[in-house]
Design goal:
Blueprint (H helix, E strand, L loop, with lengths): L9 E2 L3 E4 L6 H8 L2 H6 L8 H17 L4 E7 L5 E11 L4 E8 L8 H15 L5 E7 L3 H10 L2 E15 L5 E13 L7 H7 L7 E2 L1
Parallel strand pairs: 5-6
Antiparallel strand pairs: 1-2, 1-9, 2-3, 3-4, 4-5, 6-8, 7-8
Helix pairs in contact: 1-3, 4-5
């Protein structure tokens, strides 16, 4: 039984999703220090160049080689600028299920890039890797992430109460940890029927290809 994802590159009309490279380190460092990323992820803060180097050289590649999932840098097709990242993790090779998370650079928000990139990964996961379930968990107050899940056609399955630690700004401008609920979303292969067409009609690019 296969227990690792292939070393893959996924392309859409506007984006290329590929393994992280050393040249991504400056942009990745900047992206991970953006306020919404600090608030909704468990990444170190402040996020240093050393953290980015560790991510690009060791942590991200190990997710694939150790069978836990796969990490893909999301870049613009035309400019090759780093748009964000998509991360599959907690992969169960027996049930053919995995969990997706994503990060989007502040300059790239509002363009539909998050939906486009995660949907492209979902299509590859179901059509090529023959997976049966994709799960996404969003913090209760992270409405942007919930909108991405809804646009993709995900189904809300329930709430994990008090299950996540987010960060919030303090009065002195620092950050403090707060507990929050997680909303659990799922996507099955049949849920994708018609989603790509609906998004295309709404102006979102799709049509993924992979190699």
């Amino acid at each position: 039984m296969t227990t690792t994802f292939p070393d893959v590159s996924i392309s859409t009309e506007r984006l290329v999703l590929r393994p992280f490279e050393h040249a991504d380190i400056p942009a990745h460092t900047e992206m991970m220090n953006d306020e919404p990323v600090i608030a909704w992820t468990s990444a170190p803060h402040p996020y240093t160049v050393a953290d980015a180097e560790e991510w690009v050289r060791r942590i991200a590649p190990a997710e694939r080689t150790r069978g836990r999932g796969i990490v893909l840098a999301v870049t613009e097709f035309l400019t090759q600028r780093l748009v964000g990242a998509v991360h599959l993790s907690n992969t169960n090779w027996r049930t053919l299920s995995t969990e997706v998370a994503y990060v989007t650079a502040p300059w790239a928000r509002g363009e539909g890039y998050a939906t486009e990139s995660v949907l492209a990964v979902a299509q590859w996961l179901f059509r090529v890797q023959k997976f049966e379930r994709l799960e996404m968990r969003t913090a209760a107050d992270n409405t942007a992430a919930q909108q991405v899940a809804q646009k993709m056609g995900c189904i809300s399955e329930g709430v994990l109460r008090n299950a996540w630690i987010a960060r919030t700004r303090t009065e002195d401008g620092g950050w403090t940890d707060i507990r929050t609920d997680l909303i659990v979303w799922s996507l099955l292969p049949e849920d994708l029927d018609g989603v790509a067409d609906q998004l295309a009609d709404a102006g979102y690019a799709s049509f993924p290809d992979w190699n």
